[in-house]
Design goal:
5 helices, two-stranded antiparallel ribbon, 146 residues, Flagellar operon protein TIGR03826, single chain, Flagellar_operon_YvyF
């Protein structure tokens, strides 16, 4: 049983893969629902307008944007930037180009890692081969049949 403290409220909870407890998650979902419904009725509202109308902090609304749960509409965006190159983005943490580049690097790392693992297995196999294989005696099988 994995027990942890909630990052938000500090209470102890049964860890289920999330850094916050079920109660805080429920509150987060209620806040998200408020923001989503407000934006549905008021498309194109600014961050301060949404925050004032819903009571949800601007930091939390920004986090929803970074989690790709919300997206900025229109061309002018000065509140969200790519964390890697600084380019203005509408949602998430990285621009499309950086996402692609990071994904490519990650895949090449995995390929290198797989290559290294295969190389290591081959070296281990060669060592075992040099040490000599051990086989069960053919006679043992014949003895079992008797």
């Amino acid at each position: 049983m994995d027990v942890r403290n909630c990052r938000r409220c500090g209470k102890i909870y049964l860890y289920d893969g999330s850094p916050i407890c079920p109660q805080c998650r429920k509150e987060e979902e209620e806040d998200f629902k408020k923001v989503k419904e407000y934006l549905y009725d008021h498309p194109g509202a600014t961050l301060p307008e949404v925050s004032n109308a819903t009571g949800v902090s601007p930091e939390k609304i920004l986090r929803f944007l970074k989690e790709e749960r919300l997206e900025i509409v229109g061309e002018s965006n000065i509140i969200l930037e790519c964390e890697r190159c600084g380019k203005a983005i509408k949602t998430g943490r990285l621009c499309d180009e950086c996402k692609k580049e990071v994904g490519t690097r990650f895949l090449s790392y995995l390929d290198d890692k797989k290559l290294q693992e295969t190389k290591k297995k081959n070296e281990e196999f060669a060592k075992r081969k040099e040490a000599g294989y051990r086989y069960l005696s053919k006679d043992l099988k014949e003895d079992e049949n008797k």
